[in-house]
Design a protein that fits this description.
The longest helix is centred in the first third of the chain and has 14 residues. This protein has one domain: Sortase (Sortase, Chain: A). An eight-stranded mixed sheet has the order 2-1-5-6-8-7-4-3. With about 250 residues, the chain is an alpha+beta fold. The termini are far apart. The radius of gyration is 17 Å and the shape is globular. It is built from five helices and eight strands; from the N terminus they run αααββββαββαββ.
Length: about 250
């Protein structure tokens, strides 16, 4: 009998197979990224000023939220192609595997936050797990594989992730490769940690990712710190992961 693979990662793995073999840039990416993300086509005409005020969304993300209220932030990594909105669907965790920001079909999808995580100020997860495709043309999260190289890390140790509520700068703590394990395997699974109010559980996550790290960054995290975890495919059964600690807002 074949072993059962974790369901959510089986779906993501199928997505990886397609993404890995895309040879050309996906023309269906329907949001425009220019210098400092100034341009976007507002696709929805709904007026939600009261919602924006109530949720205290940062002014620079108001237009994005009006276009698609499932945007939860923006991620940028200097000296890479990573400069994208980050989405989250509470109803369908895999919704943005093959949808652009405008919710139209796109091979490359859009980076998205696991729906078991929260950015809400009164219920914020202390680990934000974000997925993105490893596109052969270098788009989406393909460039995070540059962190296999320790020298690249030393020259580019920061990730900038703004939620729609606050700005954030994160210092990379660990980069590693991980299999997608069978559901019955009793091993550390980074993709099962969505943040915790339990100190022991949080510190165990940090210990395990440091143990798996390709090299020692010298950066550690303690309970009370906020983390971001980026995950992309290498193959159907392997992921490349970057974990970083928030150092400023």
């Amino acid at each position: 009998m074949r072993k059962i693979i974790e369901y959510s990662f089986l779906v993501l793995g199928i997505g990886c197979i397609v993404a890995i073999f895309i040879l050309y840039y996906d023309g269906n990416i329907n949001y425009n990224i220019e210098e400092d993300k100034q341009e976007i086509v507002i696709a929805k005409n709904n007026t939600i000023e009261e919602v924006l005020e109530d949720k205290k969304i940062l002014d620079e993300y108001n237009k994005f939220y009006q276009a698609n209220s499932e945007i939860i932030g923006w991620i940028n990594i200097p000296n890479t192609n990573v400069n994208y909105p980050v989405m989250q669907s509470k109803e369908d965790n895999e919704k943005y595997l093959y949808l652009g920001f405008d919710e139209k079909y796109s091979y490359s999808g859009t980076p998205f936050l696991d729906n078991r995580c929260s950015i809400e100020p009164d219920n914020k997860s202390n680990n934000l797990l974000i997925y993105g495709h490893n596109m052969k043309n270098g788009s989406m999260f393909a460039n995070i594989l540059k962190y296999k190289n320790e020298q690249f890390y030393k020259e580019n140790p920061y990730i900038f992730f703004d939620s729609i509520y606050e700005k954030g700068k994160y210092q990379i703590m660990a980069c590693f490769r991980s299999p997608v394990y069978n559901i019955e395997d009793e091993v550390f699974k980074y993709y099962k940690f969505f943040g915790s109010s339990n100190k022991e559980e949080f510190e165990n996550y940090v210990k395990e990712v440091k143990k798996m790290a390709l090299y020692d960054t010298g950066i550690n995290a303690n309970f009370g710190d906020e983390l971001i975890t980026l995950s992309t495919c290498i193959t159907e059964d392997d992921r490349f992961v970057v974990v970083a600690k928030k150092i400023t807002t």
